[in-house]
Amino acid sequence: QVQLVESGGGLVQAGGSLRLSCAASGRTFSTSVIGWFRQTPGKEREFVAGISRSGGVQTYTDSVKGRFTISRDNAKNTVYLQMNSLKPEDTAVYYCAAGPTVTAFARGYEYDYWGQGTQVTVSS
């Protein structure tokens, strides 16, 4: 079992940066694919970024490529999402998710564990 706790959200002006953290407990963290997703009221949950078990493969949704960077530190059981050049449309609740059997990063239903989310608000 894996428990996930996100932190680092907040209010930032457009063009600013935030770094989200996802701290995990549980022995399966290092063997789990980690994904970041986001959701705004009335919209479906959206895949943002994913990272492989070793950290060697990262993938991003098109709207954040070149601005967001996902990384992980398996020794610290933590995954990060560095978000630069933030835009108002990045405003959402951001969730991290973990899954030991994920085969496609963007498939939210393949993830077994989810955090409680952290709010990111980007003002124009």
Describe this structure in words.
The chain has 124 residues and is mostly beta strands. It contains no helices and 11 strands. The strands form 2 sheets. Strands 2, 4, 5, 6, 9, 10 and 11 form a 7-stranded mixed β-sheet that branches. Strands 1-3-8-7 form a 4-stranded antiparallel β-sheet, with no helix packed on it. The mean pLDDT is 96.
Proportion of helical residues: under 10%
Q: Rounded to an integer, what's the Rg over CA atoms? A: 13 Å
* Global geometry: globular
Q: For the report, how would you describe the main beta sheet?
A: 7 strands, mixed
Count, helices: 0
N-C termini distance:
40 Å
The total of beta strands comes to 11
Mean pLDDT, rounded to whole units?
A: 96
Instruction: Spell the H/E element sequence.
Output: EEEEEEEEEEE
Structural class: mainly beta
Beta-strand portion reads over 45%
Instruction: Return residue spans where pLDDT drops below 50 for at least 5 consecutive residues.
Output: none
